[in-house]
Design goal:
- The chain contains 10 helices and 7 strands.
- The protein is of the alpha/beta class.
- It is globular, with a radius of gyration of 19 Å.
């Protein structure tokens, strides 16, 4: 018997599968608005009658989650419409828009595998992902695609932008609020992690955020892209980067992916 409330991520995964299994509903989180959902119920949510929770008589299984009670789809919509104070700007993208070019040989298969893991992440919102690749290999595109799909459920930050926000928050005494927003976001997308010009203070702040999320494991899905391999982080001279690398070494939680695609920008 489930004794705690589900997370928004669990509820999203549940409803995502629920609607995929019922194509007659003609509904998806990406293509419909909350208003359309309510309209189907004559002005109130047809699933929960505005109670925000839905219970099922039998245990339902979705990916790594099992739930008898979930937050209603209407509440998931409210979460998806949230705006984040510290979010980096991004260009909407789709996972399938990343072309699987076979340059060098084997890159096409490699890219298809990476795209598969990102699509599975959108469905289940469980395991973390650490994606390493060279400049221009499509890492940022994939992270923007996750943000496009998940909207307000996901907080997208470029670490270079974030470092500036961290130092700005020191000046106006809002660092605690910034850390809390990043730590508590249902899904955190960190682009360009491990920037070469990071300071001890920056990495100490990032460690506190990531450690907070690590303590909640699959309940706080997190995706990283980086130009640094995991091994490079692990042997860093910065102790906080080493501590972060230690969390990322958890094979039961983190999927490590490596893109071998050469710079798309240089391909004619």
């Amino acid at each position: 018997m489930q004794t705690t409330l589900p997370t928004i991520c669990e509820s999203y995964a549940f409803w995502s599968k629920w609607f995929r299994d019922r194509p007659d509903e003609k509904f998806s989180f990406q293509q419909n608005t909350r208003e359309q959902l309510f309209t189907r119920g004559g002005g109130s949510c047809p699933f929960c009658n505005s109670t925000e929770l839905v219970s099922f008589p039998s245990r339902q299984t979705t990916g790594v989650y099992e739930s008898e009670t979930v937050f209603c789809a209407c509440m998931v919509f409210r979460a998806m419409n949230r705006k984040w104070e510290c979010e980096s700007s991004f260009i909407p993208a789709k996972i399938n828009e990343l072309v699987a070019l076979d340059n060098p040989k084997g890159a096409a298969t490699n890219t298809k595998t990476i795209k598969y893991h990102f699509k599975e992440f959108v469905k289940g919102l469980g395991r973390w992902i650490y994606l390493y690749g060279g400049y221009g290999s499509g890492k940022t595109h994939l992270l923007r695609a996750l943000k496009t799909n998940l909207r307000g459920l996901a907080l997208y930050v470029n670490v270079s932008d974030l470092s500036a926000k961290i130092y700005e928050s020191l000046g106006n005494h809002t660092l605690g609020d910034l850390e809390n927003e990043l730590a508590s976001a249902p899904i955190l997308l960190m682009d360009d992690f491990g920037t070469e010009h990071g300071t001890d203070y920056l990495y100490a702040t990032l460690y506190r955020i990531i450690n907070n999320r690590y303590d909640r494991s699959i309940l706080a899905p997190t995706v990283f892209t980086s130009n640094f391999t995991y091994n490079e982080l692990a042997v860093s001279t910065n102790n906080n980067l080493k501590r972060i690398a230690s969390r990322l070494s958890d094979g039961g939680l983190v999927t490590h992916l490596t893109s071998i695609q050469i710079d798309y920008r240089g391909i004619k």
